[in-house]
Design brief:
heterodimer, A: 756 residues, mainly alpha, 41 helices, elongated, B: 415 residues, alpha+beta, Beta-Lactamase, Immunoglobulin-like, nine-stranded mixed sheet, five-stranded antiparallel sheet, 7 helices, 23 strands, 18% helix, clathrin binding (chain A), transport (chain A), protein transport (chain A), Beta-adaptin-like protein (chain A), Clathrin/coatomer_adapt-like_N (chain A)
Chain lengths: 756, 415
Amino acid sequence: MAPPAQAHRSPSPSQPSGKGEVSDLKSQLRQLAGSRAPGIDDSKRELFKKVISYMTIGIDVSAVFGEMVMCSATSDIVLKKMCYLYVGNYAKVNPDLALLTINFLQRDCKDEDPMIRGLALRSLCSLRVANLVEYLVGPLGLGLKDNNSYVRTVAVIGVLKLYHISAPTCIDADFPPTLKHLMLNDPDPQVVANCLSALQEIWSLEASTSEEASREREALISKPVIYYLLNRIKEFSEWAQCLVLELVAKYVPLDSNEIFDIMNLLEDRLQHANGAVVLSTIKVFLHLTLSMTDVHQQVYERIKAPLLTLVSSGSPEQSYAVLSHLHILVMRAPFIFASDYKHFYCQYNEPSYVKKLKLEMLTAVANESNTYEIVTELCEYAANVDIPIARESIRAVGKIALQQYDVNAIVDRLLQFLEMEKDYVTAEALVLVKDLLRKYPQWSHDCIAVVGSISSQNVQEPKAKAALIWMLGEYSQDMQDAPYILESLTENWEEEPSAEVRLHLLTAVMKCFFKRPPETQKVLGAALAAGLADFHQDVHDRALFYHRLLQYNVSVAERVVNPPKQAVSVFADTQSSEIKDRIFDEFNSLSVVYQKPSYMFTDKDYRGPFEFSDELGNLSIAAESADNVVPAQGVEANDKDLLLSTSEKEEIRGATFNVSGYSAPLYDSSAASVQSELAIISSTSAGSAPSSSLAIDDLLGLGLSAAPAPEPASVPPSLKLNSKAILDPGTFQQKWRQLPISLSQVYLPFLTLILF
Amino acid sequence: MLQCIFLLADNGAVILEKQLTGHRVDRSICDWFWDHVISQGDSFKSMPVIASPTHYIFQIVRAGITFLACTQVEMPPLMGIEFLCRVADILSDYLGELNEDLIKDNFVIVYELLDEMIDNGFPLTTEPNILREMIAPPNIVSKMLSVVTGNSSNVSDILPGATASCVPWRPTDVKYANNEVYVDLVEEMDAIINRDGVLVKCEIYGEVQVNCLLSGLPDLTLSFANPSILHDVRFHPCVRFRPWESHQILSFVPPDGQFKLMSYRVKKLKSTPIYVKPQLTSDAGTCRISVMVGIRNDPGKTIDSIILQFQLPPCILSADLTSNHGTVNVLSNKICTWSIGRIPKDKAPSLSGTMVLETGLETLRVFPTFQVEFRIMGVALSGLQIDKLDLQNVPNRLYKGFRAVTRAGEYEVRS
């Protein structure tokens, strides 16, 4: 987490300063402050409301701080709430005045109404003034012991706030161990969840300096804690469930029995109404089964339906986030989704970022059985009103053509695009036909016939023009008027703005020359002369190079320019598989949405100009550079850096090693000790195998399950498996296998990820 | 975790700001965001998750109000988005609807709600029933009361019982004079019909919505006549997983009031209730269009609110469209709306007309997509049928009601 930066609000010049109103308010508040007349609360409330509305629209009303505090002696809870809100907002910039509020907040912390106790404690901790922390410790300690769960919930978060204001105070007051005790024993699930989130944050921040803290952090993902939390997962609120599931995803089970038990317990979470819970569960499933290739595939089959439902329900924003995750899964295992291709059809109303994702997925899932339907669908989009999407879909058709063996029908479609008389369609199609010819030279005859009929005047885009010129050069023996088209293009050399096109033109003329020398000789001279005079360095150099080559030896030149070519079998992928793996590792995080591993956008060294800053001035400058594409070579270097620096990643990775049965050389000593601890614990509990029939599925019986809570520190609780469910992994696996699987290809194991 | 929540009006002005952690997020982030939105052309078109130079921004737009949340740390994106959706739902639930004035009038309540819903950036309580007990919604009755009694506190004095209840989504002591429970099947049909009139994709997304007004702690069991047609289901947390797994029975202790019990998908439907047949022929710079609409498979109930909408391609200069039934409107942004309503018994509604193409363009190459809306009351087109609803722990006299409705979701016909 970035260090909390001091940001002073500066009222923007467009808004009224409100000076007059503020001083008005000030005097009115002062009048009310001492009064005890009946009905005073109502007039106070009106004034408070006004103050807060000024605050909300950005007028600085910190001047009335003293008066607000004076007015806050009231029993009216709404007034209190408004006052807390105000104080929380301005205490940080008025540390001296904040001291005034301590008194009444501390008194409220002892109020008999738990709601007020909670609210006061929350506000007290939200003041965030460093020299007031001494007043926090007492109320927080009481709050943690309060008999009302609402107050405890607030107090736990209060501890975290205290930690951020002053870490030593928090540690000295021994709050973290208290939180740990609460986490493992409190009957209220929300208190447990808050403890967990507070402890996670505190211990991971402390871990760098204190060995004990890092041990404690490790202990959070130990078997007793994980099992304890898993057994209570149904009691937690949906958000707390996400938190627990995130933690479980880091847990490394000892054997496959454990894996199946956990999956068994969590399976119904896949049907939760909250998409965040579903995705967290999916993450757990995927991570647990990484080392078990066959089960991993079954997991894909199992999560397919919930994901697709999530996409079709909910708001467009939710579907987009789900789609991004679906996208990464589809890219990893396209064949599993091959039968569901219709889900990736674009709807007219969808925003284009959704359409783009869908197009990529359609491209990925295309195989022998569905290519025809997919290409037909994609061709419909080519006539779409949305031009970027039309382009994107033509490119998709091309990609499918390049990955298929039976391209007969697709080539016809592409050639139809060329005849559509839309400049952008023609342009995209030309580029594709060029790529296609490089891979399937056998189609040259059909393509050339169509390409030859395109007038070069109608093609303006550099990429398309370059493609056309390349084909003119490459297939000049088959195209009757190739030399003459090249000639007219060369004549317009001066008007051609793109260096890429000029480069291609030079090469094409050379190629043409060796195939049809008498017709091209004149053009070649003109092109070389124009090239030599070109102001662009590359064009100039290439022209010079050709010129000297021809002078030296014509037959050598022919071998250089027109060598026998082999069809390209595979085009290089733009995104490396390493990066894809990294993103997959960070499933259910922002990385997936950005399609970049997190270090590319969070790592300080990497970000370069893309830095966190609170200064207004920097905003506009940085905003421009934010769009810059990250240079590719930077990735490699930074990768190594990252591996050395981030210890957390290392641990997870090391842990994966262990599961997969490899030796674990990466384990550092602390992790190893946890490991041995675990071994001891599990040996003591060998008797209480997971077959225990503690299953309490009845919703109303939840209270019962909390009562006989075992002491997790000594004996790890066994998982309360679903009674009806299959207990031994064999049968469970059987059930997963029964899921419809249409595997025709050998599935690549995820070793790359583990070995990485 | 989330660091700050902003609510923005449709002109980009900040309506409300709620700082969540010690790290204060400066308001200038909203200016950056708004510039970004304007550069994208339309706030609906900008991504729900954006990286600004200083923060990662989650945004959703509801009724012209942009809900913005900022964070600087990695977190599950759906958590941010789901939470904002929940905030929007709860606000519109509390205020009746969402608009700038309503939020400004009630911003104290909005602050109170946000205070309970999220603390230190981590979502706490989003269950509407529990929030309702902590903070009373502003309604006419409470306004009247406050005028009459002079006591206008909208915060209840007692803590919600449900925080201590073993069923967290239900208050402990609910009492009704008339006990009623209503179950609604609400379905949306998504379909794509291609230019040859072939049904490319047809799917139904449905929800079982329950309005439960029952005293005490009732235990309900809902079963379907044909649960096997459901392809995938998602449940409210109150539904017990086991009975569904073994017998496809929904067994649950309901929350109080209106809630979404379950959502489901039904795949691969074979037919649609209505047909839309567009024909476009173009020649020598003009294009003739004719669209016919009629009933294909009579669902047994009236189909109403039929509306056809399409965007004319940009290359069309002018259009002259008439229909023999309903009204046709062409807006300046070339969106054409044909409101049909119900299909009359004696004739099939049709729309026809001519359109003039851009000069130099002989034939039309870009064809419009027709989006169809309709509504059928009383029928769930997926064929899903409720078998019975059993209740335990309830008073003897009670009323059970069932309803169904099917609407067009993303229903499009290509030409």
